[in-house]
Design a protein that fits this description.
With 289 residues, the chain is α+β, with helices and mostly antiparallel strands. It has one domain (11-219): q2cbj1_9rhob like domain (Jelly Rolls), CATH 2.60.120. The chain is built from 8 helices and 10 strands. It has a 7-stranded antiparallel sheet, covered by helices on one side. A 3-stranded antiparallel sheet has the order 7-6-9, with no helix packed on it. The radius of gyration is 20 Å and the shape is globular. The structure holds 2-oxoglutaric acid. 2-oxoglutaric acid binds at residues 107, 116, 135, 148, 192-194, 205, 207. Residues 107, 116, 135, 148, 192-194, 205, 207 line the site of 2-oxoglutaric acid (AKG).
């Protein structure tokens, strides 16, 4: 499959991104994907969806909407999207230097459909942002086709949204209309939802979701990353997938031997050369302890 480079952010895009994230709680970067990349993402996603349908492994969410999970295993173009400069710049701005990928999935909003409930992405602790969501628009996002809806300024609301009814939140929500090839970015405190699609065509979007390294990943990459992707992944991608320890999180039997050493171990095909085991007092492995 063709592998298309993904464009860098211009200085103007970068300034606008950080300003909007702070003031409104979300930002849109238009033309984040060039035409070739957009086409390749659409093709790969469409084929993957058809393939999963044939195999009978589809997942339906809210009415007839479709979720396609764990895209990092489903084409190089998705590996590249995780590393897109706009996504990484926004994650760095909201989460600091240290962050990892929580998941990469697609949400295809179908017609006819119902809107998703309004929610925040992070749970329990609402004192600071610990996750960041990025919606890459593969179609023009409009009010009519179920664009992501946000409540402007809700990233600064108090600790919880349970004091509001869904009807009250609905009255405040606005669709984020953005042309295909954009990325819509918001932190985990922003109240948002997918809209209802009233057109006759699906609304396709890919979500890259980042978190602080101490927040449990949505996808368990240690178990689900394919060996092929593990072997070819760049150090930067492996780091984002959680295969490097961060402070005292993600260790394998203690701290890594050398700074920056990657953790070897992807559940399905064990890669640790020397597992820890019960030892007797002389240092010999014990069959049963
Ligand atoms: O698809 C969208 O527009 C938003 C999806 C979303 O909020 C979610 O996955 O929780």
């Amino acid at each position: 499959m063709a592998f298309h480079p993904i464009a860098e952010l211009s200085p103007e895009q970068s300034d606008g991104l950080t300003r909007d994230l702070d003031e409104l709680g979300y930002a849109v970067v238009e033309n984040a994907l060039d035409a070739a990349t957009l086409g390749a993402l659409r093709d790969r996603l469409e084929n993957q969806m058809k393939g999963e349908e044939k195999k009978g492994v589809t997942f339906s969410d809210i009415g007839s909407n479709r979720r396609i999970f764990n895209l990092v295993n489903k084409g190089r173009i998705f590996e590249n999207l995780i590393l897109h400069p706009a996504g990484l710049a926004a994650a760095r701005h909201l989460l600091g230097e240290d962050f990892i990928l929580s998941s990469i999935t697609a949400n295809v909003v179908q017609s006819p459909g119902e809107a998703q409930y309004h929610h925040r992405d992070q749970l329990d602790d609402f004192r600071s942002v610990v996750v960041v969501q990025m919606m890459w628009t593969l179609d023009d996002f409009t009010k009519e086709n179920g664009a992501t809806r946000v409540i402007r300024g809700s990233h600064r609301w108090g600790p919880d949204i349970s004091a509001f009814s869904q009807d009250q939140l609905e009255a405040l929500a606005v669709p984020v209309e953005a042309p295909a090839g954009s990325v819509i970015i918001f932190g985990g405190m922003m109240v948002h939802s997918a809209g209802a699609n009233q057109t006759d065509r699906p609304r396709r979007g890919i979500l890259t979701y980042f978190s602080k390294p101490y927040y449990r990943q949505s996808e368990n990459y240690a178990l689900s990353l394919s060996p092929e992707v593990y072997e070819r992944a760049s150090p930067e991608l492996l780091d984002l997938l959680g295969f490097r320890s961060h402070a005292s999180f993600g260790w394998v039997d203690g701290p890594p031997a050398a700074t920056g050493e990657f953790l070897r171990g992807s559940g399905r095909t064990a890669r640790l050369s020397d597992y820890s085991a019960p030892l007797d007092a002389d240092g010999h492995p014990m069959a049963d302890a």
